[in-house]
């Protein structure tokens, strides 16, 4: 990964180009006008498309209030509607337009331009990231446009909605193609603010994401052959091997290129740590607590229950409840979209279920590797806390007074060991803890596994249920009503928060 030295305020010419990046006709005109001041090129589009994708995933309204809120990593202490399962209409509309018309269309254009230029590395990256965007959309909404998506410039103004059960195999096949296109010996890539043109890391992300998608649909389809193909042939299908491979974007210190959480915290103070997350960390003597959250005004760790009425939440007092840790609120905070820790928990579950070789022996190995990777992902801020503590831990965590992260990891695994009898639950719960600040993936996985067991919001407005999908956007219902209606008819419970997507049924 790299710090995003490339995320800079765009020149007026590039800004003008990016303003039209969501419009099919805009790209057509740019591509037809070689004498114009701005011509769409993969390197210019790639910078914007990566930042747009990651920003949407980590946005406060989607990644924070929907993902981290509904999965009970975070909670709201003011204006609590979202925490009570009342999402804003604008969140659905903006999410749809961002992953489709903005970043999704940019990646589609990169694929088309790269195909014409015979630039396989740009094409492979475009295919990988377009897949990420579509996967996010289908996991959020269910059936969505795919085979007819991004074709507005070819007269497809109302794309059909493909079934999720058809979309998933197509996404995995696309990732397989992307892996074959990506080559370290190929043409160089510019504008890559995620991996700085390191094609081997792009291959690792591509194949690691394929394993994520395979596991997610494993309750519906036999994925053993696909997972074994990747895991048993690392030369052809490399996957993450360390935190250096994490698909992470680092934002910059200065606005407008700072992390979306930092931007939000400049004017808002609505979010606090969920009591559920705090209890899970404390029960496990988990020192990630010192990084994930800050102390309250009394120098203690305190959470708040999810989904309170605003009046009840306000009674807790802003200074009495812990906020997200400073590490995550920094302007240049990292924004991961997939990590080595997550991959290890994917492999642990796959081994436990027999999708890949090794059984419980390998499941334990991957389980411990996942914990290790998660702690090491936060090694720098965690070590700074340990140094500040001068060897004395507080707040109920680790009484052994270890002073290095390596010692802490060994201690933590010893008191939270893998147990084959309830291995799937342990793997899912550790994945949940490792996915802090990746709330959408944590929510998707909670929906799939049912772990950890979560209690619905105290004052929830959704018939006592935690939502399992987002309703289709009102904008889409207005402009593509017949296809939306057809997709809604396939949902057992209609276009509601409680209608499960295909892989969750």
What does this protein look like?
It is a single chain. The strands form two sheets. This protein has a two-stranded antiparallel ribbon. The protein has 505 residues and is mainly α. Helix 19 (423-434) packs antiparallel against helix 20 (439-449). 52% of the residues lie in helices and 3% in strands. It folds into two domains: 12-261 and 328-504, Serine Threonine Protein Phosphatase 5, Tetratricopeptide repeat, CATH 1.25.40.390; 262-327, no CATH class. The protein starts with 11 loop residues before the first helix and ends in a 16-residue tail after the last helix.
Provide the number of structural domains. Answer: 2
- The CATH architecture of the largest domain can be named as Alpha Horseshoe
User: How many strands?
Assistant: 4
Unreliable stretches: 1-37
List the keywords.
TPR-like_helical_dom_sf, signal, globular, disordered N terminus, SusD-like_2, lipoprotein, SusD/RagB family nutrient-binding outer membrane lipoprotein, 52% helix
